[in-house]
Write a structure and sequence with these properties.
343 residues; 48% helix; 15 helices
């Protein structure tokens, strides 16, 4: 099986979690991480939050609810999206609209970007009329997209060459956690920007991790999504096997939900998978993209990942059946097709 070949920096496997106060004075080791809960009180009042102008690029399945939460919290938000109509609901809630990423970063102190893939993230940041063209010293750019480390490092360099600060902050969580402000941010980059962005991250999420140098956040997100994609493929196999041997798959889902291997996505997605319904919370095409990037990361450090590689093939098959925009749980259809072919 051919794996994509991309540059990703070698990431140490030893991390030592030490929850600490968000008010610290000593510099951190570059590759250590710290956990902060958004349940902790933040020093910013609603008026103080509104004094920082916030830009948000990308009004997709994740970006739109994240931006809405900022608006509802009283933040001064300016939005942009390639398809302008996707910004209309946000403007209706009080957001401003700009016609390019360049105009957004020129107008805002702090800009967040949530794009679909590395190519989009690079183009929006570094392309014609991109964020780099409008940003300047004293401002910040926080990329919450899921990209590979090499793409994140490239965007970081372009942003920092202007004198601005850069933070990568990919999120763990899908549509519902985004709507509920329950995302997990995996951040890396400029520590000063991390501290400045913290109150806004806490509006959109339940916890945040600082992982040191740019590239570490991207790597952590890809590893998490690689695990998730492999878990879903195995879960799909379990559903179909339980049906094949005459068991009630709904009971199987219930058994799993009460045991040590329980994960929220099993009880959340299992019933709809049994009915062959896949309401999109995390598109299958994005899951396959993350599997591909994770395999590239593994290849760059000579780490064998045969389970993830096999799961990736299933997502590729599901995409070939036109399921790209369905939820990633639709990967079960690839297994159904394989069963039909064997019959």
């Amino acid at each position: 099986m051919a794996l994509c070949s991309i540059f990703c920096p070698r990431i140490p496997v030893r991390f030592r979690p030490k929850p600490i106060s968000p008010f610290f004075s000593k510099p951190m080791f570059p590759l250590s991480y710290r956990v902060y809960s958004s349940l902790q009180p933040t020093p910013s009042s609603k008026d103080e939050l509104g004094s920082v102008s916030i830009g948000f690029l990308g009004m997709g399945i994740m970006g739109s609810p994240m931006a809405q939460n900022l608006i509802k919290a009283g933040c001064d938000v300016t939005v942009w999206n390639r398809t302008k109509s996707k910004c209309d609901p946000l403007v209706g809630l009080g957001a401003k609209y700009k016609s390019s990423p360049e105009e957004v970063t020129a107008a805002c102190d702090l800009t967040f970007a949530m794009l679909a893939d590395p190519e989009s993230a690079i183009d929006v940041a570094c392309g014609k009329n991109g964020a780099v063209s409008g940003i300047s010293s004293g401002k910040g750019y926080v990329d919450v997209s899921t990209v590979d480390a090499a793409s994140s490092i490239l965007i970081s360099k372009q942003i920092k060459d202007t004198g601005a600060l850069f933070l990568e902050a990919p999120v763990s969580g899908s549509k519902k956690p985004a709507e509920d402000g329950q995302l997990i941010f995996l951040t890396a980059g400029d520590k000063l920007l991390y501290e400045k962005a913290a109150p806004f991250l806490d509006i959109m999420g339940k916890s945040r991790f600082y992982l040191g140098e740019v590239g570490n956040g991207a790597a952590m997100k890809l590893i998490v999504n690689m695990i998730m994609g492999s878990m879903m493929a195995s879960f799909a196999e379990g559903i179909l096997l339980s049906q094949k041997v005459g068991l009630d798959p709904n009971v199987m889902v219930e058994v799993v939900s009460q045991g040590a291997i329980n994960a929220p996505m099993y009880s959340l997605k299992g019933p709809s998978m049994i009915k062959s319904v896949y309401p999109t919370a995390f598109p299958l095409k994005h899951q396959q993209k993350d599997m591909r990037l994770a395999l590239g990361l593994a290849e760059s450090v000579s780490q064998s990942t045969p389970i993830a590689a096999a799961a990736n093939e299933l997502y590729k098959v599901a995409k070939s059946y036109g399921l790209s925009d369905e939820d990633f749980s639709a990967v079960i259809e690839a297994l159904k097709a394989a069963k039909s072919q064997q019959s």
